[in-house]
Every structure is written in C-alpha cells, then in structure tokens.
Design a protein that fits this description.
Elements (H helix, E strand, L loop, with lengths): L13 E2 L5 E2 L3 E6 L6 E7 L9 E3 L3 E5 L6 E8 L4 E9 L6 E5 L1 H6 L35 H14 L5 E4 H5 L11 E3 L1
Parallel strand pairs: 2-8, 9-10, 9-11
Antiparallel strand pairs: 1-3, 3-6, 4-5, 4-7, 7-8
C-alpha cells in the first residue's frame, strides 16, 4: 500500500519510480485503486500512440522499460471513475553527450498529498517536510510537467536530439548518469 492519506479514488494513487530505469529493465509501479479493477497503458511523452491497455487488480505492476533511446514515458491508469498518468524516465543503454535531469524532488515537494494524516497537504513551498516516495495526486502529472517539462522533452525527441536522462533523486544518491560525464546538462 502506498504511503500517505488517500481520499477519493485513483487520481491520488499511482506511484512511479523516482530514478530512471535502463531501457529493457524491469520497472515497478504501485497503484491504489481501492481494490477495484484497473487498466494501464504506456506511451512516450509527445507520442499519441500507446501500448494496448492491460487489466489488473493488484496494487503493483511490473513491466519492462520501453524504447531504446532515453526519454520520458507516461503510464496511464484507469478505473471506472478515475484516470491518472504518471511520468517515468527511461535511460538508453547507449551514452550521449547531453544529460537531462528531471526535477523529481521539486515535483514531490509541490505534490499536494497529506503525508502525515493531519488533513493538510505536505508542501515544501509551505515549509512543511514532504516524503520523497509517495503517490502523485490529482491527474498524476506533477505540477508544471504538462506546460514545462513535457514540451521540452517532446521537442528534443521530435528534432532527433539524443540525450541521457536522470533525476535529481538519482544524482543525490549517486545512481545512474553523472553530471561530470556530459558536455551539456538540461535542468
């Protein structure tokens, strides 16, 4: 079961990984669908086509990270009444000169989930501590993702720019691609 207090349905219940997964490796998501059946599909940011939808009832889904090139994908989860899409990063086996760093700490710091059960959202902007490993609220997309992050990622892909991808969480944990191994960094 996911950490945090969940009120309502699925829109508050999908937790993706906080670090990039190598293309082809297993990636795991946790879904709180209130024990009701749900379906999921995956598509790359900027692409209209998605994998065929699959039905689940358990709180966990494992899949192989899609694609060959680095990028961000959206896992969409649907129940009869709610839909949520959460981003997750996939790193290519091949290295590139530019590194894109996703701001997962900021995304979680602005995620309006109540971590401690006091009835108020835990937001870093309010000076309140927020847990890093928790579900994304609302439609699942982090604040600013649709207007800032997704357009940049789609533009890079559409224009054939190849890059490595990581998250600020991975950098802090010294996991995956490192800043010093690249000639350029997009934060």
């Amino acid at each position: 079961r996911s950490a945090g207090v969940l009120i309502g349905g699925l829109s508050d219940g999908v937790r993706p990984p906080n670090v990039a997964t190598r293309a082809g490796d297993e990636v795991e998501f946790f879904v709180d669908a209130r024990r009701k059946p749900w379906t999921w599909s995956v598509r790359r940011v900027g692409s209209p086509s998605a994998t065929p939808s699959r039905r689940k009832t358990s709180a966990r889904v494992r899949l192989h990270a899609p694609g060959r090139e680095s990028g961000v994908y959206l896992m969409q989860v649907r129940t009869a009444t709610h839909t949520a899409s959460v981003p997750f990063a996939v790193q290519s086996a091949k290295r590139h000169r530019v590194l894109v760093v996703l701001p997962v700490m900021t995304w979680q710091g602005r995620n309006s989930l109540d971590d401690d059960g006091d009835g108020l959202p835990n937001l870093l902007d309010d000076g309140v501590g927020a847990k890093l490993f928790r579900v994304y609220t609302g439609d699942g997309l982090p604040a600013g993702f649709a207007t800032r992050d997704a357009p940049l990622l789609a533009w890079l892909d559409r224009n054939g720019h190849r890059y490595d991808i990581t998250t600020d969480v991975a950098l802090a944990a010294n996991r995956g691609p490192r800043l010093e191994d690249h000639r350029g960094v997009i934060l």
